[in-house]
Amino acid sequence: MRMRAEHTTPGSTGSPWAIVAAVLAGCWTVAVTVLAQTGGWAVDQVVLIGGLDRLVPLWPVVCLFTVLLIAAAALPLALVPRSSTVRVTGRLWLAGALVLGVLGLLRTIPPVHHEAYLAALAVVAVLLTVVTTRLPSHVLGPGRHGGMPEHTAGGPRDDPGARATEQGGRPDGHPSVVTLLAVAAGLALLLPWVWLGALGGLVETVLAGLGAAAVGALAAALLGARYWARFEVGEPSRPARLVLVGGLVSGVVLLLVGAGVGHSGAQLPLLVTLPPVGFVLAALRAVARRPAGAGGPAPTVWLVGLGVFGPLAFTDPEEVSLLLVGTRDVPFWVAAATGAGLAVAVVLAIGYGLLLARRSARAPSRVLAAASALTLLVTVGLVGTTVGQPGLHGERLFVLLREQADLSGVSGGPGRAGRDARAGEVYRRLVDTADRTQTELRRDLRRARLPHTPYYLVNAIEVEGGPAVRAWLSRRPEVARVLVSQRLRPLPMPADSATGSAPPPSGPPWNITMLGADRVWSELGVTGAGVTVGSSDSGVDGRHPTLTQGFRGGDDSWFDPWNGTRAPTDRSGHGTHTVGSAVGRDGIGVAPGAQWVGCVNLDRNLGNPAAYLDCLQFMLAPFPPGGDPFRQGRPARAPEILTNSWGCPPIEGCDPRALRPATAALEAAGILVVAAAGNTGPFCGSVQDPPAPYPDVLTVGAVDDRRRVTAFSSRGPTATGAAKPDLVAPGKDVVSAMPGGGYAVLDGTSMATPQVAGVVALMWSANPELVGDLDRTRRILAETADPVETDAASRDQTDECGGAANIAGAGLVNAYAAVSAARN
């Protein structure tokens, strides 16, 4: 007897059980992909915030498990069901998972080398496209030998018009209706990113375009005519099935492809915006089957390519970070653009599906399709040049020269006069060295028309340029090394200013009394008068009632290289809080009689070595607004003490030695640099980010109101084996000033650091002969410090970190004892 045929009718879906299995496999694939991608990004962020070394194997491991988990569901679909449609669906999802796995491996490239990543993405996507197009016809679709007839509903294969269709155009060489409609849809997807995002550098943007085009070509190879034919053969009168079923299947494929695109963070918007594009592609395919419709791979390349180009080019993945969450910064606007992109994609899916996929619908005229594409192109251009952020905003290069100034033998007498003499001599030597060694390099940069900013506190130049410029600079004999200087891209509108909701203190808060600062005021009559503290931070609200009287004033007491403000301002509140703890009136500051000067080095919580150097350089030799730091610096106006509640990690472009010459120069000038240890505890060896590990910096950890070292306070030893922190101070639940006249309670070694700066201000106010005598000052602080209490966990950790000095330093600073000793 004859055996029953083992195949189903082309185009049929098979048994209900096969359909249920396909639905479950699709849901499983989506869940695994979304959870793996968001989970991998979250791990990246935890590692970053925790100050740990980057986990290079993270994404290879995530990709491997993602592919295995998806394959567990897709492979049975690809092999078992009697329905060829279900089998092709399983094979396509399996291919998409493999694409995700291969592209995801590129995330081992460090994020700081974004151009290299984009170039690799373009190359690998092209290779995957070639491999996909050369797969046998029956793998992703029936093809010529898979039960398909030699023609489709649109016409014979050997028809010249059909061949033009496969190439994405018309016989006359002009773009097809479907291609023009795809371009219009892609531009609509791009519009939110042009409005709310900002481009990087020129090379970065070009490579992003090439990478997006390559990803579009890869999607076209996966979702080619062989795939769509499975939903068309035998049922030319049911375009709704093509749109609904074909759109669902292709949407999962696009989810998998998008999940592999971009460094960690850039792929998150694509998880949301690309899947609905599958329905748009299905609707366009329905049009392509009609006379004059034409199709081929070009519509998919344009639509997916433009959809990928938005998040790939108009946002920096390093800025999609929890470090910027909490304000209306890049993550907020990326989320807004993603939401707008999702809305656009859904509208396109519904609109194209209803208007283009009806049985009675005819292909739109080419004139109408061209007009739609042109209108959207003009709209994108107008938005980008008006309400958008026009221009290129790429990273810069921080070029460190080999020769640094020789500051040996700098001397001066005791007290402020001696300090001023030392500062003047240090300033002269630094400027002379920079002028002499930078002359030829600056001349070549001018000839190449490369914008640049020279520095002298560290003999360095910040240059606008990409990988080619970096390679050229690295080969120059006077250059020691070239770092990537992170530059945040501009926002559609400034972030809202932070305000405080805590009530003003009715008397000295607990941290002031723990230090004994209130006793210094009342019993010793010392408030810090005659001493100036310099703050390099997010800024200072100079109109706050507790701070306005302490501002030194003049034309050289405020510098804002971020926003160019001429009066002390602060949007984030961090700098206002720290200055308040150092010199604020009304009981919140340790040295309420001291004055302060300020500089903005971290307006948006991600900086770079040049931004930090801008302020440190200003602190050594203040200059008037718009002045030349090399020629108009006033070292005699330098503040005596600097409070620095910031660190420069590798993500911002710093290496461990980047700012070392700066703190050495300030030490030679007799200016005390006080810096936060960091909030990456309780890990041992977590005092890592400059300037905290440097030996000439007074590094401060944090304790709570029970004199216990907080869990977040960073521990030593440093990478060189030195013990850090040097001291600890109250850093948990500290109340201080906030912009707008309010108050807030904050935690961190950032809060502890200005209190130590305030204690030194009290010491130097009590004994002006100590001004500039950094060794004696450090010795007094260490000898008068109080022991800190430790719980069992901290005692167990002492041995792990190499001793108690790497957890609490010399102990808790004691203002009363230190000022008393300074007087004697």
The mean pLDDT is: 89
- State the CATH superfamily name of the largest domain: Peptidase S8/S53 domain
Largest sheet: 7 strands, parallel
Helix content: 40-55%
Over the alpha carbons, how many angstroms does the gyration radius reach? 32 Å
Low-confidence stretches: 1-11, 143-168
The number of domains:
3
* SS elements, strand count: 17
Strand pairing plus helix content: what structural class? alpha/beta
* Oligomerization category of the chains in this entry: single chain
Q: What is the tally of helical segments?
A: 27
Strand order of the largest sheet: 10-11-9-12-13-14-15
The end-to-end span amounts to 115 Å
Which outline best applies? elongated
Q: Tell me the fraction of residues in β-strands, as a range.
A: 5-15%
- CATH architecture heading of the largest domain: 3-Layer(aba) Sandwich
State the CATH topology of the largest domain.
Rossmann fold
Per CATH, the class of the largest domain reads: Alpha Beta
Question: What's the layout of helices and strands?
Answer:
Blueprint: H1 16-49, H2 58-79, H3 84-104, H4 114-133, H5 137-140, E1 151-152, E2 155-156, H6 160-166, H7 177-196, E3 198-199, H8 202-222, H9 225-229, H10 239-259, H11 267-273, H12 277-288, H13 298-313, H14 330-356, H15 366-385, E4 389-392, E5 396-401, H16 415-447, E6 452-455, E7 460-464, H17 467-474, E8 479-485, H18 510-515, H19 517-524, E9 532-537, E10 558-559, H20 574-583, E11 595-600, H21 609-620, E12 641-644, H22 660-668, E13 672-676, E14 698-703, E15 727-730, E16 734-738, E17 742-746, H23 749-766, H24 774-784, H25 792-800, H26 805-808, H27 815-823
Parallel strand pairs: 3-4, 9-11, 9-12, 10-11, 12-13, 13-14, 14-15
Antiparallel strand pairs: 1-2, 5-7, 5-8, 6-7, 16-17
